Structure of RTA1-domain-containing protein:
Amino acid sequence: MTLPLFLSVLSFAASALAAGSSDDAPIGGYVPSKSLSITGVVLYGVSALVLWTQFALVRPRRPFMLTLTLGMTAMTVGFILRYLYATPPFTLGKYIAWDLFILLSPCLFLATDYMILSRLAATFNPDVVSRCLAIRPTRVVRIFVWSDALTFFLQSSGGGLTAAKSASSAKLGTTIALIGLILQAVSFLLFTFLMLTFAFRVSRYFPHVWQAENGEPLRIFSTRPIGDWRILIFMMSATCVGILTRSVFRIVEYAGGYNGYVATHESFFYIFDALPLWLSMSLYCFVWPTRFLHGREARDVPLGTDPSRTSSSKPGVGFEYSRVNV
């Protein structure tokens, strides 16, 4: 749901490049720094390349991880468009294009975490999931992705209006986008709480499940399965910090108005938006998330099952608990 909607809106943003009137004064209150834009292109571009490489090499491929690779790629495109906009004339079309790419691309990062948690939880024994996860694994994606789609629509609608020359239209666009950003932040905060609660309950009620398994040491930039699922939880927690930092910044930015101090000073954008997102989401470059799913699904018995109650002599017993359709 989120991915097709995202692609359709970004298609509109791309078409906006050829639209709009030109102006000698920059839209948005400042001319973006070309050097910082190039830095953004390089950092996000390298991360996108690594993520695409991981997606291609780690088997079996999981289509849901396209949200991560496309999100990083879209951010790279956003910085390219931001660089192009920094050269006069400052057309409305160029402004809308880079603004929407950078504003909306992180929605795919949120969707990535939703689907990772859903699929990770599905590799556990049903008793563990029912006691530790407040929502069924299949419903995690449905609930939060639909929420993401709604907030995505509000942000895209409002983001386009903020560049309007009419003061009333620009103000309306800021209000709509602000509502979308607040709802998105609340939704993702609830998801973060859900994920951390799940991990806490597993450690409390199923300590044998929480403890790391004996196995090979963690290898970065590898395709081998990983058994210690806690590493993935720690990585997701770090991405949540980056995403929530960016969410708070965007709320403050839009709450201050189109011509507010935060909105018209570029340094805030890089410190509280571009950098936290890049640092947090680039963690997946080092350890591809599906390696943890493969590690769990490689077991004959789903994590948390009592071995004394399971016939290990029968191939595949318990495997259906951990199989996830993607």
About this structure: DSSP finds 14 helices and no strands in the chain.
